Amino acid sequence: DIQLTQSPSSVSASVGDRVTITCRASQGISTWLAWYQQKPGKAPKLLMYSVSNLQSGVPSRFSGSGSGTEFTLTVNSLQPEDFATYYCQQTNSFPYTFGQGTKLEMK
Amino acid sequence: EVQLVESGGGLVKPGGSLRLSCAGSGFTFSRYTLNWVRQAPGKGLEWVSSISGNSRFINYADSLKGRFTISRDNAKNSLYLEMIGLRDEDTAVYFCARDPRVFGFTEAFDIWGQGTMVTVSS
User: Shortest CA distance to B14 belongs to which of B94, B89, B119, B88?
Assistant: First the structure.
């Protein structure tokens, strides 16, 4: 199985800050990587697919990059609604796997 | 509105069985691959199973094979997850989620239900 390791596991930031979350895959997954945002008690929300394609309706302050085994999600100019937990997911091969999550907290 | 709505969760004793349902609306249900994803309390997301639109292609997380069965009834716009031999560690919120690609490989899950809670406890 392909393991995804996110770093950091948690991060504290302030409104207006720029935050970067990294997702490392245990083997190459080309560009089969997606990012989700989840708020407490809610379903995950798709932010980005195929590494850098912004899902419809997602603000452009979110961006993604990477290929192979290392990927990043960047949030520019953090807004209050961005404080949540973020997950990466690989769909390169079954079983699909998720990273363990990165909790973005308000400083 | 495109949506998925899960139902069927509840409290079940270890070793028991449960059938979850997921009703789709607002899209041509039969065209899309659907998935089950679960999340144990306070934990991360775990993909459970996937079924193609015509039910020809089915995949499971290795640890769940033999205990969980995914199926769908396109005439009823419904997805199912039959779970037997339930264990404490199966306690989780179970989400159904749609793969937006009608053709080609899965890139992500774009539509998620609100989830249904399954609690396995004596």
Answer: B88
Residue given tokens 């919120």 in the structure block:
B93
Distance CA B6, CA B25 (A): 12
Query: Which of B109, B111, B117 is most worth mutating to test chain A (most A CB atoms within 10 A of its CB)?
Result: B109
d(CA B79, CA A40) in angstroms, rounded, equals: 25
Q: Are A90 and A32 in contact (CB under 8 A)?
A: yes
Closest residue of chain A to B99, computed from CA coordinates: A91
CA end-to-end span of chain A, whole Å? Answer: 36
| pLDDT 10s digits, B45-97 | 999 999 999 999 999 999 897 899 999 999 999 999 999 999 999 999 999 99
Strand partners, A58: none
Averaged over successive runs of 10 residues, the pLDDT of chain A (107 residues) comes to 98 98 97 97 97 97 96 98 98 97 97
| B112 near A CB under 8 A | yes
